[in-house]
């Protein structure tokens, strides 16, 4: 019987570095990297103009992504998901992906202070001007109100990284 791959996923406020860390981890682990931003922008070009649009299209994609990831894990390949696991509900979704195929998992929690996230968002706006409309301080504060730090009681394997501030 083939050993399953490991599922890696991320928790951290907007601007914490989830996408950057996921790219490095995928390369390090020689894992398949799946980016929600890439899937959404490819499948729904110019259709996501608000947070509500993001939620709608993201939910439509979840059943397909879940099955796809489980198929990859089932053949013994590690998967790094650049998808936010920033609420209890989202983390349960990731946990089900792994547990339903008996795959190990790691939640990488990027624990940064708001000021550091905002600095990184400002830098990202300069480097990726196409994201400037969404990558704002107002959007950061809007999203942060929904953020729920992970807890050991959720049954997750949590690896925590703290910011330098």
Query: What is the CATH C level class, in words?
Result: Alpha Beta
**According to CATH, what is the topology?**
Rossmann fold
Coarse morphology: globular
Strand tally: 5
Strand content: 15-25%
Strand order of the largest sheet: 2-3-1-4-5
Number of structural domains = 1
Superfamily at the CATH H level? P-loop containing nucleotide triphosphate hydrolases
Low-confidence stretches: none
Average pLDDT rating: 91
CATH architecture: 3-Layer(aba) Sandwich
Q: Provide the structure class.
A: alpha/beta
Share of residues in helices: 40-55%
N-to-C SSE series? EHEHHEHEHHE
> How far apart lie the N and C ends?
46 Å
Total helices: the number is 6
- How is the biggest beta sheet arranged? 5 strands, parallel
Q: Your description of this structure?
A:
This protein has 165 residues and is α/β, with parallel strands linked by helices. 24% of the residues are buried. The protein has a five-stranded parallel β-sheet with strand order 2-3-1-4-5, sandwiched between helices. The longest helix has 24 residues. It contains six helices and five strands. It starts with 6 loop residues before the first strand and ends with a strand. 47% of the residues lie in helices and 16% in strands. The mean pLDDT is 91. The chain is globular and about 45 Å long. It has one domain: Rossmann fold (3-Layer(aba) Sandwich).
List the helices and strands and how they pair.
Elements: E1 7-11, H1 18-29, E2 32-35, H2 36-43, H3 51-74, E3 79-84, H4 88-99, E4 105-111, H5 114-127, H6 137-144, E5 158-162
Parallel strand pairs: 1-3, 1-4, 2-3, 4-5
